[in-house]
Amino acid sequence: MHQTDTEIRQRAPSSWGATLLLWLSAAVVAFPFLWMLRSAFMPTKFIMRFPPLWIPPEVTFDNFTKLLTRQPFLHYITNSLTVATIVTVGQVVISAFSAYAFARLRFPGRDKLFLLYLATMVIPVQVTLIPQYVLVSQLGWIDSYAALTVPMLSSAFLTFLLRQYFLSIPGELEDAARIDGAGYLRIFVTIILPLSGPALATSALLAFIGNWTNYLWPLIVTRSREMRTVPVGLASFQDEMAGRTDYGQMMAGAVLSILPMFILFLLLQRFIVRSLATSGLKG
Amino acid sequence: MTAMSATSEPIVRPRRRFRVSMRQHEALAALGFLLPGLVMFLAFTLGPALFSFAVGFTRWDGLSSPVWTGIDNYIRLAQDPLFLKSIVNTAWFTLLFVVMCMASSILVAMLLNSRARGIGFARFLWLLPFVTDMISVSMVWTWLYHFRFGVVNYLLGLVGIPPQAWLGSPELAMFALVVLSVWRWTGYYALILLSGLQSVPPDLYEAAKIDGATRWDRFINVTLPMLSPTIFFVAMMAMMSSFQVFEQMWVMTKGGPNDATISVAMFLYIQGFQFLNMGYASAVAWVLFFIIFVLTIINWNARRRWVFEG
Predict the structure, then answer these.
(1) Engineered SS bond to A4: which of A27, A132, A198, B16, CB 3.0-4.6 Å?
(2) B116 and A22 in contact by Cβ < 8 A?
């Protein structure tokens, strides 16, 4: 399953019918985003109109300025980026270390322990949610970066993913290094890690997306505005408007929430498409 | 290489005592590598999982000391109409979601498996919903579904269908939530199916063509069987994630109207974190786990029936 570095091949010759259908489907999937953009830049008096106007008669930043005076959205984005980055780095580093032990070292109970890791992957997050919350509040971490990051640092899934990749690396290279007297840490850092670039990058990507989109955990462990991540901030903004929802501002909020991921995705497009295609060994 | 291993032979075959200590050395190194992950795993995954099982047999607000109540929580759950409703809702959501999502993912995977101009951009567009968070997505769809000003009702009006209260009617709300979830997940699942699709040997299609098989025949007799392991796998993933559905309902309907869209995960959140019935909520979590577990086992056994293992 390690096709991370193979291109997605394009094989089937496409008829004009298939091409038409392809672009029609792409238009359907893009439509909600376009509608969001259109509404975010439209003055309120034009948004609340039926039949809807397809093109804004005038473009305005009012929705954004109003939103930003009511909610510290840029702060939410900084929080989300910080938390997702910390968790991503932590998960990849910690999982890589564990994965190396599982893939390459012999120790009593190895396979049983690995099976235990795998078994926890089928446990829904709801099961561990309450004890995690209680633990974090006992530690006095509620409403802090520690609460948002530390409990997320271990990932059985990434450990599994990286172990599978490490197993596919031929052992001869390590044998040679061992004969030269290299220790395990040195072998791990100078041989295994450099050969695992694509797998590490895929892991980082999955960790980042997973954390960026995480809502339930940050919802539970944050109290103040200052600690909110983007999804929590956006949802609480909607709650505050309850009853008299301003859809222009709401769409402006959605635009701001989606923007960082959109930029990241645009920059790393080819890599992301390739990584996600091979992430299918999850579960 | 052979010469080298021949010369190194005496070095790598140590005396018995030395070998034992080498093993110990390796095990110690392994412990060092495992330690950070293991500590986190025990503290934040395995420990909480076991603890939550115990909490399920207590009455507890998370602050004072828990009161042991035996299987009381489970008995109450079996009689709690809202909980039972949430199970039915979640099962209904999962069924609709998995079926619709598999159909759309297979279709989109086949569309994306083409040489058309700008295919990379099309893949990009299809994946975009997956990398955006569910809250933003739910906000956008709330607006699309708006009864008076929503574009969905406008488009339906163009073909003569009267406006529907998508999120306001018990019959339609769940369906509306499923549609947006299918929209969000299709691209990701299609991408995984696409890599399965591209590993189908082209000669199978050639052979079928020579035998006079139509496009449809080839889809039914070549594509589907060859793709079935991947479809099985994606369907399992879809099932597991949709049984935990929460955000869409939480943002768009708050479980309403008339509790028509309250999900198990949402029931759990309300019990655990709004009413602070943490024992009760833990019992809910274990029922959820049990349901997912049983369904996984059933699917796994059904695998032999319809998955083609080439």
Answers:
(1) A198
(2) yes
